[in-house]
Amino acid sequence: MILVTGGAGFIGANFVLDWLALNDEPVINLDKLTYAGNLETLASLQGDARHVFIQGDIGDQSLLTRLLADHRPRAVIHFAAESHVDRSIQGADEFIQTNVVGTFRLLEAVRAHWASLPEAEKNAFRFLHVSTDEVYGSLAPDAPAFTENRAYEPNSPYSASKAASDHLVRAWHHTHGLPVLTTHCSNNYGPYHFPEKLIPLMIVNALAGKPLPVYGDGMQVRDWLYVKDHCSAIRRVLETGAPGETYNVGGWNEKPNIEIVHAICALLDELRPRADGASYATQITHVKDRPGHDRRYAVDARKLETELGWKPAETFETGIRKTVIWYLEHTEWVAHVQSGAYRQWVTSHYEVA
Ligand code: NAD
Ligand code: TYD
Questions:
Q1: Cβ(222) – ligand 2 distance below 6 Å
Q2: Which residues of 38-73 are buried (b: 16+ CB within 10 A; e: fewer)?
Q3: pTM of the entire structure?
């Protein structure tokens, strides 16, 4: 079996759902259920013995030690993090606690577990750390995309905390020999994305008749990847990546924010036209820019493509259409997130640590 941290969040939950749809290897899912953790996303796994959910903190080393001893996973996939840049600007405490200290505690518990394994299991064991392209900082308009050799230049409290965790993971490999793998993915989008991030926020606000708040001039560039393509990349790196290596993950889909917002508006105009016949684009409002806003991210994923043979399945056009349709069809999930009802989701069938 595998141990996943943060498996009730956006990417972690998509990963768990895809994993169990593709094979029967059980998943231990450790998640603290912060505001970003949503068990409703995993409702289809209720009663499925292949999924064991544990509510707990990656900073709780004794819990981790117990979980690792009880379940003896062959791999740990580490998604758990505070992930929203704007929240990290409001206050960075939780980012340091979870992303830095939490990753340290997790590494220590995993190292002790790994060291105790028999040789064959020890050799096969993997710790996969899910990082971000944001650790590389901001690119000039014509600069080449980030490769794995790019120097770290994190600019936000979020990216600085992720960079710190990357360094710890690297050191635990270099010093202690822990077989680690690190992925640096670009911006994800798709089903079950918490509507505080750009793409789901725009869909949800558009449908509610609210303003679509574009920071500054909207010409900041992000490199978008459909979440299920990120999950397939993680599976590929887990099975075939070389310990100690880092892999960039991206779909060569660089787009300025304003273009993303217009693409969403055009899809909604087609799929759910406004009653008054006007375009959703009339709701676009330019608002104050984010402090320290990184201007451009772009990922060079050639190492993953050539060495491990990974390719994304979706283009931006197919992925964004699927995403908009998903949000149109899952209004209850969105309503529960917005009302806070998802936090009262019945957890009685889950083990609470
Ligand atoms: P998310 O915020 O949606 O989910 C994070 C999950 O971690 C939540 O379920 C939360 O409850 C859990 N969590 C937080 N603190 C915890 C703790 N101390 N102990 C246990 N669980 C805890 O984040 P996401 O967008 O799914 O991102 C997952 C990972 O992928 C993060 O490490 C993030 O840095 C990385 N990443 C995200 C993107 C993106 O576009 N979203 C891109 C590249 C990399
Ligand atoms: P976000 O989804 O927060 O991801 P990240 O900051 O990690 O890239 O934001 C994506 C881009 O969209 C980023 O350039 C900030 C911008 N943005 C807006 O213009 N308006 C918004 O309301 C939000 C949430 C983001």
A1: yes
A2: bbbbbeebeeeeebbbbbbbbbbbebbbebbeeeeb
A3: 0.97
